[in-house]
Amino acid sequence: MGTFEEDRVTVPFGTKQLDAVLSVPASAKDTSTAVLLTHGAGGDMNLKHLVSLAHTLASNGFLSLRFTCKGLNLSYRVKAYHAVLDYLKSQETFTINHIFVGGRSMGCRAAAALARQLNEEKEGTVQGVICLSFPLHPPRQTHSHRQRSEDLRRLPEHTSVLFVLGTEDNMCDRDLFDGMVKELKAQVEVFWLEGGSHGLTVKGRSDDSVLDEINLHVITWIRKQGA
């Protein structure tokens, strides 16, 4: 694994600004893949899962840009994601040929919506979506699963999606999820974390060991996409 540098940046967003962090591999000139990440309904870009993943990505030669957007309205989150992607594209230091978007819980719902919008406008804009703990429905409210999965079902077949889910996640009924996956046109890979909660914690295991396992799956999957 290589070294990397981090820079705190601010992303213009209408009349506001979004706080973000760029994790840049030491060999930045050789970097052609970027991964954008954001958090769920609570917390911010300093969530341990996102920081760990961002550092692992940068250590493996992938540029990572994680950001904070605390709005709980999904369309607002998607607009923020658009702003972050535009900011990345404006950076002349990097030549990015592969873009992956992702996040945790509500953050990956926003990433899926962004990928759907962009890929409907121009094929191949976003190569893949990383969904950590996709919130298919609120706890014990499975009736909303189709509405929450609409953007995923509308992703085109040339898009790839990685799901990282806990087997004990109370916001993702496994039977409903399996049924949803069968409807997707996108290329899908699913990693079930045994005993994992919606927060991707596992009783009896250290956070670091769980994060190492998840990060390895993410890195391996990105490389499978030819990035």
UniProtKB/TrEMBL annotation:
Domain KANL3/Tex30 alpha/beta hydrolase-like per the UniProt entry, residue ranges: 33-214
Q: Which SUPFAM superfamilies match?
A: alpha/beta-Hydrolases
Q: What is this protein called?
A: KANL3/Tex30 alpha/beta hydrolase-like domain-containing protein
Species name for this entry? Answer: Monopterus albus (Swamp eel)
